[in-house]
């Protein structure tokens, strides 16, 4: 199974649409997991044209009245995958994310919030953050592909490239 991982799209407040490179990267996935801060349910609709979508609520989703669960857990080939937005401080703190993964009793934890891609294994738990394809922080624009095959896990960070705008509509991208 191939799962597309994405987070922190912030549409339409930071960009009008998902970059075409995101759609291209997820073209052959079986499932898409969005780790929060969609800021519009239209993001789910657009991604569902490619594959089924699971999403959790981010801090900006709450501010925009989007009602999604705070956490989700699924099982794929005997591995439990949890997803949260990951509002821990300091941002992306591995110890706190590990604690949340243990609370959910998962093998893999997908989170967002930091806008920085991360692949880290800690105490046997794989911590993943796909970064942001729209507003990264000190990183490239990214998503991830998670492949699970016969209990073997492979993770790939996909660089999305330039923002999806021209000089004329650059005002669609706002600063953090």
Describe the structure.
With 176 residues, the chain is α/β, with parallel strands linked by helices. The protein has a single domain, classed as Purple Acid Phosphatase, chain A, domain 2, CATH 3.60.21.10. Helix content is 16%, strand content 31%. It is built from four helices and ten strands; from the N terminus they run βαβαβαββαβββββ. It has helices at residues 20-25, 42-47, 59-63, 94-104; strands at residues 2-6, 31-34, 53-55, 71-76, 79-84, 108-110, 117-122, 125-130, 142-149, 152-159. The strands form two sheets. A five-stranded mixed beta sheet has the order 3-2-1-9-10, with no helix packed on it. The protein is globular, with a radius of gyration of 15 Å. 40% of the residues are buried. The model is unreliable at 164-176 (pLDDT under 50).
Question: How would you sum up this structure in a few lines?
Answer:
By secondary structure, the chain is an alpha/beta fold. The protein is built from four helices and ten strands, in the order βαβαβαββαβββββ. The protein has helices at 20-25, 42-47, 59-63, 94-104, and strands at 2-6, 31-34, 53-55, 71-76, 79-84, 108-110, 117-122, 125-130, 142-149, 152-159.
